[in-house]
Amino acid sequence: MSWVSVPGSLLLVGAALLGSAVGSFLNVCIARLPKDESIVRPRSKCPKCSTQLKSYDNIPIVSWILLGGRCRTCGERISVGYPLVELGVAVIFALSLWFYGLTLDAAAAAVFGTLLLGIGVTDAREYIIPDEFTWGGLVIGIALSLRAGVDGLVTAITGAVVGFVTLYFVAWAGEKAFKKEAMGGGDIKMMAMVGSFVGWQGVLMTLFGGALIGTLVFGPLVLRKKDILVPFGIFLAAAAAVVFVIGDGLLRWYLNLLMGGVGGP
After folding, report:
1. Fewer CB within 10 A of the terminal residue: the chain, N end or C end?
2. What pLDDT is stored for residue 2 in this prediction?
């Protein structure tokens, strides 16, 4: 079935709507998990006047637009970050369906993308990566790996182990070298989760890509201010997303380049 047909278009719209709803829940997780608050109760409320939001004021993306980005009761400005997260997850869900069709691969892409977005935003805001995103994501990643049978399960477990051990070693070596904590435990657990989705080769590409992006963005700042905090989870999340989508192609390109170099002059 063509994904540009009417049925396909309706599926894409449905995926986007589902994604926006998941994004709304992700906003709750981002706001509450770093504070160890319940993500179930109480209902969402205005941070200034504490008025609980009505259901019609909590429609993903739409309510924020209709309210002009302000609380209906007190007029407090509501961060544009909320609808952007909802829109982001809506796009992730729609693109996952577009690229992979109505398959478990699409489900894996949607879940992984949502987890990475949650990690990136939370780390940027709070310098924390909640265990619910990492350990919870690890369990989901291993479960979804069963779509490829025993081989998929082995790949996921191997990737998780390599991700955890590799970054644990990097953190240990960095602490020994710089005499202070070089990397947070959240980053280490995150790479175990990432490994369950992309395998051990994807882990190595993610670490390389995350380090490259982080160096380009924060390198000049670190040189000027030694004690600056670097939310490395943001860069790992960005690199992991790229690896999930085109990691196989990148690996083939690198191997071809390597083999060409070996056989060349």
Report:
1. C
2. 46
The pLDDT assigned to 1 comes to 40
180-208 burial by CB neighbour count: b if 16+ within 10 A, else e?
eebbbebbbbbbbbbbbbbbbbbbbbbbe
Is there a contact between 213 and 241 (Cβ–Cβ < 8 Å)?
A: no
Alpha carbon 183 to its chain centroid, in Å, reads: 18
173-182 pLDDT, tens digit each: 877 776 666 6
- pTM of the complete model: 0.89
Question: d(Cα 12, Cα 7) in Å, to the nearest integer?
Answer: 9
- The answer to whether 141 and 193 have CB atoms below 8 angstroms apart is yes
Dihedrals phi, psi of 110, to nearest 5 degrees: -65, -45
- Taking the C-alpha atoms of residue 36 and residue 246, their distance in angstroms, rounded to an integer, is 35
Cα–Cα nearest to 142, from 171, 93, 108, 168: 108
